[in-house]
Write a structure and sequence with these properties.
Elements (H helix, E strand, L loop, with lengths): L5 E3 L14 E2 L6 E2 L4 E2 L12 E5 L23 E2 L5 E2 L7 E6 L5 E8 L9 E3 L19 H8 L5 E5 L8 E5 L3 E3 L3 E5 L3 E5 L4 E4 L3 E2 L6 E2 L3 E4 L15 H11 L2 E3 L4 E3 L4 E2 L4 E4 L6 E3 L8 E4 L2 E6 L2 E3 L13 E4 L2 E6 L2 E3 L9 E7 L2 E6 L2 E3 L8 E15 L2 E2 L5 E7 L4 E5 L2 E3 L4 E8 L5 E6 L2 E3 L6 E6 L4 E6 L2 E3 L11 E8 L3 E4 L2 E3 L6 E13 L2 E3 L5 E5 L4 E6 L2 E3 L3 E5 L7 E7 L2 E5 L2 E5 L5 E7 L2 E4 L5 E4 L1
Parallel strand pairs: 10-11, 11-14, 12-15, 13-16, 14-17, 15-18, 16-19, 20-23, 21-24, 22-25, 23-26, 24-27, 25-28, 26-29, 27-30, 28-31, 29-32, 30-33, 31-34, 32-34, 33-35, 34-36, 34-37, 35-38, 36-39, 37-40, 38-41, 39-42, 40-43, 41-44, 42-45, 43-46, 44-47, 45-48, 46-48, 47-49, 48-50, 48-51, 49-52, 50-53, ...
Antiparallel strand pairs: 1-10, 2-3, 4-7, 5-6, 5-8, 8-9
Length: 622
């Protein structure tokens, strides 16, 4: 029977800390591990006269090791092993090691070796890559991974090292049988050494794992890491492309993308409790394939995606779909600090970030979006239907998709659109639908900058039957409505609402090609302390159709054709309207206009300052 091919060493090459031996605590005595570097030949005999060459990592430039832990006495290079195949080696930092026999035949090479910390065992085992199945015990104890796992047991610390052979760039360690590596065993991979796992088989890793950014897994089988085994996994461990990323997502909850470009041709699917992150603009995930999602989550929960850059393929109007991130029936999702380019198509359900249906407790924060040219309801950030408790915060949306931010929310929830910048969209900068589907409802649209959108700056539409409230305040809304969107061409447009609405402290600036500053069709609306600056066309504040229970107070309205207009020829039941304390100046046609062709009750127009533009305009017209 062959001896287990192992090297006993406790000489730990880590920066500034070198440990000579490790004591295993016990009350009756102390057992010490072998205090020297020791190597064996292929037959398990001590490597008498062997030579250990030590170099700078990745080079053939000599790097010194030492015979004492104070690093004052340098070893020869190469170090010649004694008759027991032993020597004493202390070092500092990373090394490239080449071990040769006395005839200068190379036995193994370690590159970028950083030493072994306290979590790795000081006994090393080297499996035989030629074995047909590393997942089984061999009759002759022929050095498979399973042989070593069983020999080590579940209490002793040890490290299994996977070396690349002398021929070819890759050495495969094949697993035809599933295996579990216990928590006391560490795995170390030399560049080029790889697990090749058969379809339907799984390698479960519960101990420390050491590999750099090179491929260490291949085959159709799977790898899973136990909770806390590693800080994060990298797609590079599985190679490149969508399949490698999917394998990483399936292997562990924490997936890290390095400073690199990643080309994907199919969607990568999330699992619940997944944290996906990168190095900001330096981590680029992109596709040249039409109509695919880059990352997709269906019926998964507790997701965080941050610090990544996504590039889509929305370069022409015939692209019908394609999302950066797509979610369906997901809860507790956070997307933050990501960059998106060229997402959004001719389909309703497309965008850079798409919460398509039935998503709750979602946050899109501090993301940047540009380059989309989608039509219909395509949006930079799309919350398409049945959305609850959404927070869309501090995003920059600059594409020419139809909408910058689109939220279609359900009742019984609170939805917040706060601190975003939305510019240059073909229809609406911010669009929110809301419906009374049960419970109290609240929408807050605040502190946004919304400019140069084709139809409406901020468009809110819904019916909550008095059971909720809508707040639009502290926004800067300017130069929207340059495209003829009919009734939609307004800076702020509130329609079909029967719940209390507060529109306050907004700055609204209009160009002469636009429609109205604020347009409201609904009831229970307070329009307070806004500043509206027009260009002598249309109306500053326009209350149309069936305005009821409206307060217009403390607004500054300048340079409009009409400052405030209440009612229209098609309106009915105009009642309980208060126009109080507004400053209206340079109105071309009229300061305040009230249409009395319909039933009118309780209209108070009091304490307003009204000044025309010096032409024949009227102050108040009833």
């Amino acid at each position: 029977m062959k001896k287990l091919n192992r090297i006993f060493t406790s000489i730990l090459l880590i920066p500034f800390i070198v440990v000579l031996f490790t004591a295993i605590p016990a009350f009756s005595g102390v057992l010490y591990q072998y205090p020297k570097f020791q190597a064996f030949d292929g037959n398990g005999n001590p490597l008498n006269g062997g030579k250990l060459h030590t170099y700078q990592p990745g080079t053939t430039t000599n790097k010194a090791t030492y015979s004492d832990k104070t690093l004052s006495t340098a070893n020869a290079n190469p170090i010649v092993l004694d008759s027991r195949g032993e020597t004493v080696v202390y070092g500092l930092g990373s090394y490239k090691f080449i071990l040769k026999d006395s005839s200068d035949v190379t036995i193994w090479t370690f590159d970028n070796y950083e030493g072994v910390g306290a979590t790795l065992g000081s006994v090393f085992y080297f499996p035989d890559a030629s074995q047909a199945d590393q997942g089984v015990v061999t009759a002759s104890n022929a050095l498979t991974v399973k042989d070593f796992v069983d020999a080590i047991g579940t209490t002793k610390k040890a490290t299994i090292v996977f070396l690349r052979g002398s021929s070819g760039n890759t050495t495969n360690y094949t697993f035809k049988t599933s295996i579990t590596i216990p928590s006391n065993i560490a795995l170390y991979f030399e560049s080029g050494a790889q697990f090749s796992i058969d379809a339907g088989k799984t390698v479960t890793i519960n101990g420390p794992f050491d590999a750099k950014l090179y491929q260490v897994f291949n085959g159709s089988g799977s790898v899973t890491f136990g909770n806390g085994t590693v800080k994060e996994v990298y797609p590079e461990w599985w190679g490149s492309g969508s399949a490698a990323a999917q394998a990483a997502f399936n292997a562990y909850s924490n997936v890290c993308f390095s400073k690199a470009d990643y080309l994907w041709t199919t969607a990568v699917n999330l699992n619940s409790n997944q944290y996906v992150h990168g190095a900001g603009n330096s981590s680029k995930i992109y596709t040249t394939t039409d109509n695919i999602n880059l990352i997709s989550g269906v019926s998964v929960n507790n997701i965080v995606i941050e610090g990544l850059q996504f590039y889509g393929d929305n370069t022409s109007s015939d692209i019908t779909n394609g999302n950066g991130l797509y979610f369906h029936t997901c809860n507790d999702v956070i997307i933050r600090n990501c960059v998106f380019h060229k997402f959004g198509g001719a389909n309703n359900n497309s965008g850079a970030i798409n919460f398509y249906n039935g998503c709750s407790r979602i946050i899109a924060e501090s993301n940047y979006v540009d380059g989309g040219i989608g039509t219909a309801n395509a949006a930079d950030i799309l919350c398409y239907t049945a959305i609850s408790n959404a927070k869309i915060i501090n995003n920059i949306c600059l594409s020419t998709n139809s909408q910058g931010i689109y939220v279609n929310a359900v009742g019984g929830t609170e939805n917040i659109v706060l601190g975003n910048i939305c510019k240059n969209h073909s229809r609406h900068g911010i669009m929110v639908y809301y419906a009374d589907s049960g419970g109290y409802y609240k929408t807050i649209c605040s502190n946004n900058i919304v400019r140069n959108n084709g139809w409406t700056g901020i468009y809110l539409s819904g019916n909550v039957a008095g059971s909720g409230e809508v707040i639009v305040q502290n926004n800067i809304v300017a130069d929207n409505g340059s495209v003829d969107g009919g009734d939609f061409a307004n800076n702020i447009y509130i329609t079909n609402s029967n719940a209390p609405i507060l529109i306050s402290n907004n700055l609204i600036i209009a160009k002469d090609t636009e429609y109205h500053g604020i347009k409201v069709t609904g009831t229970d609306v307070s329009i307070l302390n806004n500043w509206l600056l027009g260009n002598f066309t249309k109306t500053g504040i326009y209350l149309t159709l069936t305005p009821k229970h409206i307060m217009v107070e403390g607004n500054t309205i300048g340079n409009w054709d009409t400052g405030i207009s209440i009612g229209a020829s098609a309106s009915t039941n105009i009642e309980h309207i208060i126009v109080n304390g507004n400053s209206i100046y340079k109105s071309k046609s009229c300061g305040v206009y009230v249409d009395l062709q319909t039933t009118t009750n309780y209209i108070d127009i009091i304490n307003n300052y009204i000044k025309g533009d010096g032409t024949k305009g009227k102050g108040i017209s009833i």
